[in-house]
Design brief:
single chain, alpha+beta, four-stranded mixed β-sheet, globular
Length: about 220
Amino acid sequence: RVSARRARIPASAPPPSVATPPIGALAVAALLTPFAEGARDWILVRRGMTPEKCEGELADIAQKTPMVRFLLEALDKAGCPVNRDFFEVQYCSQAVLGGFRPDQGVVLCHNNLMSRTDMENMLTHELVHAYDHCRNKNMNWLDVKQHACSEVRASNLSGDCHWVNELFRGYGFRFENGHQRCVRRRAELSTAMNPRCASKEEAREAVDAVFAQCFKDTRPFDDIP
């Protein structure tokens, strides 16, 4: 079994499936792309990576990107080491960069990933979800509040709300509580994708209920990276 510190894609890995992954019912921890906010139609026609390019970047990121390596090591230390099978490169028809499938792993949507930076941010986000799933053996991703808590943590710790990303989305950056506003907004967007979440209002209420506690929880980091 390959440890998290040595996770890599072997040259003999089988070609990835091009079927649309079932991001939805159980893969509720899907990461909305930056383009999903205000330009959702455009992302559906943009051209992303080839499967081969995505596989190659994944292997390199697992070895060289500090945030991803740290989270892979944290999963290992928490008793959930991962190997190559934890990551699946697929074609996705939805406007998402990827998602986390509980008890299965991370899906990477090669056709929506435009750059290495896209992939690094997405992997960090989804590995926070994987860490939450590992440390909470009773995690119920269909529980809207539990899901909302993990979305708050993933948005807070992954770099999703870096001011450059916010500028790129067209929101600008507010120095007064700008990071918290972004975390809250993106957590609400992802929580609303939960099949048990009936409305945007319910997603907002769930995020409100858990925000203070979950925003402060930066594990496995000592602080917000």
